[in-house]
Design a protein that fits this description.
single chain; alpha/beta; Rossmann fold; seven-stranded mixed sheet; 7 strands; binds S-adenosylmethionine
């Protein structure tokens, strides 16, 4: 059971992640905690990679670069709803369900935008996940809230071992797990290009740093999601997003539940 992201938010995150599948680059999650959302994203990419491998061998057709058509949104929604349930049930059925929704994305994906040095061969997409595995850092004054005194330094501590074991248990080989404070991450710790970023570090400084790291690597048509945008307990998240948007007018903001969805205009 994921106590950090609601089922409805999980549905939305997976829907947008699916939308980002045809975009060049890898997926990242900054603030993975127990790895519950990570498993779902990793499963999505695993299915996508295996179908892409088949399609690049010529078994399925791949359409030219273009605006992805998301007619499978409905099936994703169904998949994601079941995935949400699956999170509670240790993801038992999620792999199957993600599978269907990935089919369409493979067909919509572009060989051109996702090329390796060998023309026609696609780079398997990876999921890079990050956490201090020491819990939250200290709040700053931007995080001050009258809505509660939760989210103190050291809260939400899980060990890296716990997440490594979970990822392994699900047989996911496409996930890179990094233990670090976001501020300490270097170029080599991040993918060169990011198609999809889920920023879930709760606090002002953590979200600000996440956006600073993701922004220069974000692919055209890439998607950034920031959690807790309108969560009164965590006002720092919205502050960091709003500051980012003021400095980057090329981005537009959509808010769904507590998710801020940032895409280039
Ligand atoms: C809300 S939890 C993430 C939940 C997870 N995304 C999910 O969907 O289950 C926030 C996580 O971010 C991590 N975190 C917050 N700020 C961080 C920072 N500056 N550096 C590293 N990790 C950080 C915390 O340790 C915590 O595990």
């Amino acid at each position: 059971m994921n106590d950090q992201v609601t089922r409805e938010e999980t549905v939305e995150i997976l829907r947008l992640a699916e939308q980002a599948l045809p975009v060049a680059g890898d997926f990242v999650e900054l603030g993975c905690y127990r790895g519950d959302t990570s498993v779902l994203l990793g499963q999505l990419l695993r299915e996508y990679n295996s179908l892409s491998a088949i399609s690049s061998k010529g078994i399925a057709t791949v359409s030219p670069v273009g605006n992805p058509d998301f007619t499978c949104g409905k099936s994703v929604e169904k998949s994601a709803i079941s995935c949400g349930k699956a999170v509670e049930n240790n993801h038992k059925t999620c792999g199957n369900l993600v599978d269907k929704s990935v089919h369409k994305s493979v067909q919509n994906s572009s060989l051109e935008t996702n090329q390796t040095s060998q023309p026609g061969l696609k780079q398997p997409k990876k999921l890079w996940i990050y956490d201090s595995f020491a819990g939250l850092p200290e709040k700053t004054r931007e995080d001050a809230s009258g809505a509660g005194a939760n989210f103190q330094a050291g809260e939400l501590l899980v060990t890296k071992r716990e997440v490594v074991d979970k990822i392994r248990k699900h047989g996911l080989k496409n996930v890179i797990i990094k233990k670090a404070w976001f501020d300490d991450l270097n170029d080599k710790d991040l993918p060169a290009r990011i198609a999809f970023a889920f920023c879930d570090g709760d606090l002002y400084g953590s979200i600000k740093t996440s956006l600073r790291l993701v922004y220069p690597r974000l692919a055209e048509q890439g998607i950034i999601i920031v959690h807790d945008y309108n969560n009164p307990e965590l006002p720092g998240s919205a502050r960091a997003v709003d500051e980012f948007l003021r400095a980057r007018p090329e981005f537009k903001l959509q808010v769904r539940r507590t998710l801020a969805i940032l895409t280039k205009r």
